[in-house]
Amino acid sequence: MSAEISAAPGQFARRRLQFRAWRGTRPFWAGLFIMIGGFPIMYFPYANLQIGHLTLAMATTAGAGSLIIGVLLVVLGISLWFQKHIRTFAGVAAILLGLVSIPVSNFGGFVVGFLFTLVGGAMAVAWAPGGDTDAQPAQQVAVGGGGAPAGVADSDTTILRPVAGEPNDLSGTSPANGANGRRSAG
């Protein structure tokens, strides 16, 4: 038997770098924390703890509710990995499910599941996709008049500047148009 690795040289490093790149484009840690928080929430209501010859059953009347909350948290964590655009919904839903698990599931999986879920949900809500590092900086347009110093451009108004001589009211309710602000039905 030889001690050689069957994989091509550098394949592990290449796969590790691919995973790192994939992980960097989505809220990976938020999904992981939410999934880790879901497991104690769904496990503890069905657990039997053996202490010597004494069996301590932690079954509660809300065992089904705990199972549903735990499964939903695991599904939210997985969906954060593969559908990053739902990060706000999944984060808020995870936080709410974690809060609901406090009275339903033995203090939220003995607070462990609750804390993991709360931190993961907050990370999901706070996560934002990174910008392109190769993007060119925007050209600043000199804006003259109006009190703005030349060379300083306001990012909100540089693209959509009012045209000189044209009315800027698009609602049709301006007194200059002869309207008094009321809509006519006929």
Describe this structure in words.
By secondary structure, this protein is mainly alpha-helical. It has a domain at 28-126. It is 47% helix and 4% strand. The chain contains six helices and two strands, in the order H-H-E-E-H-H-H-H. Strands 1-2 form a two-stranded antiparallel sheet. Helix 2 runs parallel beside helix 4 and helix 3 packs antiparallel against helix 4 (87-104). It starts with 10 loop residues before the first helix and ends in a 60-residue tail after the last helix. It comes from Streptomyces koelreuteriae. InterPro entries: DUF6114. It holds the Pfam family DUF6114. Keywords: Membrane, Transmembrane, Transmembrane helix. The chain crosses the membrane at residues 24-44, 56-81, 88-104.
Features:
186 residues, mainly alpha, 6 helices, 2 strands, 47% helix, transmembrane helix
Q: Could you give a short account of the major beta sheet?
A: 2 strands, antiparallel
The tally of helices reads 6
Number of strands: 2
| First-residue to last-residue Cα separation | 92 Å
- What average pLDDT do the residues reach? 78
Order of helices and strands: HHEEHHHH
- What percent of residues are in strands? under 5%
Percent helix = 40-55%
Give the neighbour order of strands across the main sheet: 1-2
Low-confidence residue ranges? none
Keywords: Membrane, Transmembrane, Transmembrane helix
Transmembrane segments: 24-44, 56-81, 88-104
Protein name: Integral membrane protein
Region (Disordered): 161-186
